[in-house]
Amino acid sequence: MANYSRGTSTNIIVGAAALFVADTTLDAASLTAFESAKSFKDTLTNDADYTNVGYTMNGLELQFQPDFGEVQVDQILDVAKLYKQGMQVSLATAFAEATLENLLLALAYKDSKLTGTKATSGGRVLDLSAGDIGECPVERGLVAVGPGTGDCVNSTTIERVYTAYRALSIENVTVSAKRDEASMFAVNFRLLPEDVSGSYGKIVDRTFVPAS
Q: How does pLDDT run across 51-79, given as a tens digit for each residue?
């Protein structure tokens, strides 16, 4: 017979995640494979298809918002049955590095809207286009890699990987230049299910063993 335990402190996870944005949407088949001897952060850093947004503010927040319908009957005052009729999933964060590359991601613009280089007289230019009628919104994949355990002994080799296959920035993005506040881009991504499996993505807890 098992003895009563108040809880397991190593299951209390604290810490921010590194956020990467893919150039295209993802699915289970196209997601970059894990390497047994390497953190997934290092794997994605060396993959040209992913961009690390750098510093973030207030971490990331995944929100699952189910929508239920109700069936009411005459014999009881409360509803007799609930049925699921909808679902929304979103991911919110704030890009603390106010680069034009991050602004492009926050605005869900195409890569072609960003041209030039800082080294030239014309500079790096982000075209703030209103878009055209019928223009398709830009969807990208998101991957965040954060701590997977509260056990300090194993914290450097256990990680939690959050993957969103289709993400679209849908809310207002504010660009500011203030004397007493850092410029950053708060962004809320609406996640959509991919076509084959209907999955929004996945969360993986994994352990890697660095090569000695």
A: 999 999 989 999 999 999 999 999 999 99
